[in-house]
What we know:
The complex is a heterodimer of chains A (276) and B (233).
Chain A: E1 6-8, H1 12-36, H2 41-49, H3 52-81, H4 87-92, H5 101-114, H6 128-152, H7 154-160, H8 165-194, H9 204-207, E2 209-211, H10 212-218, H11 220-228, H12 242-269
Antiparallel strand pairs in A: 1-2
Helix pairs in contact in A: 1-2, 1-3, 1-12, 3-6, 6-8, 8-12, 10-11
Chain B: H1 6-25, E1 40-41, E2 51-52, E3 66-67, E4 76-77, H2 80-85, H3 106-109, H4 117-120, H5 126-130, H6 150-153, H7 179-184, H8 186-232
Parallel strand pairs in B: 3-4
Antiparallel strand pairs in B: 1-2
Amino acid sequence: MKTKARINRFNVIDRLFHLSLMITFLLQTATGFSRLYIGTVWGRKVNSVVGGYEGSLQLHKWVGVAMILGFVLHSVYLLTRIKWRTPLKSILGEDSLIPNFKDLKHFGQQVRWIFGLGPPPRFDRWTYWEKFDYWAVYWGLPLLAATGLMLMYPLATSRLLPGWSLNIAALLHEAEAILAVTYIFIVHFFIGHLRPSSFPMNEAMFAGSIPLEAAAEEKPAWVARLRSERRVPEEGPAAPGRWYRVAYFVFGYAALSCGVYFLINGLLYARHISLH
Amino acid sequence: MARSPVILRIFAMLASVMTAGALILWPLPAGSDEVASAIRRYKSQEVSTGYYEEFEVLPRRNRPFVEVTGVQGGIIEYSPSAAKVRSRTHLADSHAGLDFYEFKTCQSCHPEQAEDLHTQRANLTCRQCHGGEPIASIQHYNSPMNPIRKHAYVCAKCHEGANASFGGYIVHAPAPGSDAARKNFPLLYATYWFMTLLLVGTLAFFIPHSFLTGLRELFAREKEVENEDESTH
């Protein structure tokens, strides 16, 4: 029997954080990597679109500051998500993104399932790769922010640290950016779009809710837990409207194409960068 | 007791003061200030640590008959440590004695030095920082590149307010993963390899993981479709 019941996965604030991260991340990729590749034909072309050599740096700095503000806001928001009456249970429980031993167990089960040696793991609210996605941003963003601020204010930095720390900061900023971009544009995009269970697009992050059936299939332990707590409503939230769906499909695929465009050209032109 | 004349007393006082002064100020015998290293000791003349780096003092004159590797030939060789100090990084004319120097460009001998941000991105020429001929060695006491004044004489031309620490930025940093970096800039080398390992490790884990998960889901779905077909027939 098919029902139309849906279940909430991300609230409006979660989705707005993800949306603003998408936009700022792509802007930083465009401005940052076009400057890194400025010595190549492709880099110069992209750079002229995002403001030229000086203009793109200004944009990169302002978007960077916006990202830092977003990070601070998100951290405050995180604190409000903790149920302070039962802090330990809330932080270490199943609704939390903190990794625990169950994730390790799930990983083992997942490997066995991939090779046909056992049943698939019964995931709760977050799979271990979703947790990794989250914490990858959470440690990458402060690193990029700190090194970015160092490079933005080199004179102030050299008053506190030796001048050669700027060499290290520049290298760290570049390397972490490459790590973030390759991870997002390969792994995160594959999981969100190409994986059979999410193809053509995992809508949870835009619609906010997913069909209860899909949730029960992907995260059986989560739905079972909600059912046992009688927290699954009969109908649940409404399905996203048609035009809203069209909008986020277009937006999602535009972002996807941007990412793939940067990834492919970045790989193709990597050997023409004249810096060392 | 006969009182000595005033003039004699004054003379005696002056004589004792001068003798004491002479004893205090008398230079030490030459042998007691023997120095065998490149570090000059000024302990006998100044109230300070008495240790000076080469770039803080006037350069010693060139000694004839003394061989300096790559600079001048001679009969007597410097000790290895002294030869290091007399190397091209400490000369008034860092290119002294090079054959056909006038016909060379900077990059024909220093290609590596043209791969940094200042050259590649800010489009600076070598001479905008290193100056005209003769180009003094970066450690020569009179060179604008000398670390004691580089920030004011060179960096601050563009970076207004540059301080000595800011001048410590390594403009011609070695390629971060290279052997040169391992020797001269170990922290840069370590950072590079740590981040490279992190990148390779993350992708080497997550690309196969995601791909195999996707593949497995595809097979699981096919099986479901087969089961559904069987149940409808």
